[in-house]
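Observation: inputs received (chain + zinc ion).
Thought: call the complex predictor directly.
Action: predict_structure
Action Input:
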Amino acid sequence: MPEAPHPTSLLETLEAITGPAGLLRGADAAPMLADWRSLYQGAALAVLRPGSTEELSACVKACVAAGVPMVPQGGNTSMVGGATPDESGRQIVIALTRMNRVRSIDTTDMTMVVEAGLVLKTAQDVAREAGALFPLSLGAEGSATIGGVLSTNAGGNTTVRYGNARELMLGLECVMPDGTIWNGLRRLRKDNTGYALRHLMVGAEGTLGFITAAALRLFPLPREEAVALCAVADEAAALALFRRFRDQDEGAVRAFEYMSGGSMHLVLDHVPGVSLPLAERAQHYVLVDLASSRPQAGLRGLLESVLEAAMEAGEVLDAALAESVAQRAAIWKLREEHPEGQKRAGASVKNDVSVPVSAVPEMIRRCSEALQKLIPGSRPVPFGHLGDGNIHMNLAQPPGMAAAEFLARSHDIMDCVNEIVRDYGGSFSAEHGIGRLKTDMMEDWRGGAELAAMQAIKAALDPLGLMNPGKVLP
Ligand code: FAD
Ligand code: MLT
Ligand code: ZN
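Observation:
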């Protein structure tokens, strides 16, 4: 092994590669050392921000030579501490936020090639300006980057229609753990040429290298949209309403989101600038979003007729149909502010779980009961992507309990939910990934051949273990 250079000389080498704008330390680096949920406070040698794939490649080679672990970061919106360095101060955070160019866009092929640091919202805007849709949509889209959403295989609101981030990716460019650049930016719908390395990198949470650019799929822009917020009788009624829309026109459902009263009311009570467009508060809500690229698709008529039938059946109690773009945005804001509402209301524990859609109502009811038994006075605040079976079975702290006392029970709370989810063949992490928070669950849930294969892949691609150590794998 070559003797590791002193960190100061490594930082000088890195700064020579990136220029002074590429190396942040002290107060400038501080925001990148803690996670969005404030679960972890890390430390690092520095935050490095290379300006190009070639610069990143040279930086990675320098870090490998120095034996310094690297933590990839995008918008730093991870829900599982995936982009936060450990507390040792020996790791280096490498943020790709300066690598944010749109390299090409083609509305015949319906593809767009963008760099990893491009913010998701900007990618959506660029596609729209070119007359196409990049459909991935989530609450953090104003900060999350393309590299981040691919590295976590983010899902979000439109999975029911367009799939997860993986389904929107055709090819990748990456810097591998030894600094080699791999250009796999193929824009092909068919490409069966051996192991699909691009799919290994998606969802790897930065443990197998850096995603530096991606070829993404685009779709036709919707010509008609219709959005409603409904108060529904219970969780089963929410599912029944989803089935009604799916049975009428499956292709029209762009998003179908469930929100419990407990969760919605944290938003109404703690987030400024929101209001409920219904006569009174309810115990259960659904946001239905229909969209079609067909002219005269008749979505408004579909929305009204389905809701009318569901009201007659007692499933829908009240509904507000958006009459303008502004009203659509206001209804969506109520949904998108759920993480913020929970954050402002005090400590909460997140359970990002998925089950087959048919099991969602029973799973929510069983988990809510079990959680209230486990922590008396706690408030289950479930909400999420009912259309794809991913519910955020979150729990808000009991009023009056100290946050630290509540958070000390985090793993009991997660175990309580996960054991119920297991009964339905569900997943303990549907869309947020494993990061640092859930590595200890991997042996139990993925142990045996699956985890052994993951460990073999990690050892083959990152034999020195320098890529985001302590994340994903136990
Ligand atoms: P970061 O948080 O910076 O990083 C996430 C992980 O990817 C880390 O492990 C990091 O090391 C790695 N990484 C980042 N960039 C790269 C790269 N270029 N190459 C290799 N590895 C990289 N997620 C959902 O799926 N659905 C939601 O609906 C959703 N809603 C959210 C709402 C809010 C308010 C917030 C704060 C988060 C939400 N998330 C959601 C979490 C979600 O994981 C992120 O928003 C997004 O996927 C992460 O993007 P990012 O650029 O912030 O990545
Ligand atoms: C969301 O869908 O808003 C986030 O993924 C969920 C969360 O904050 O738990
Ligand atoms: Zn979500």
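Thought: report the result.
Final Answer: The chain has four domains: 7-95, 102-220, 224-339, 346-437. The pocket of D-malate (ligand 2) is lined by residues 139, 338-339, 350, 352, 384, 392, 394 (CB under 6 Å).
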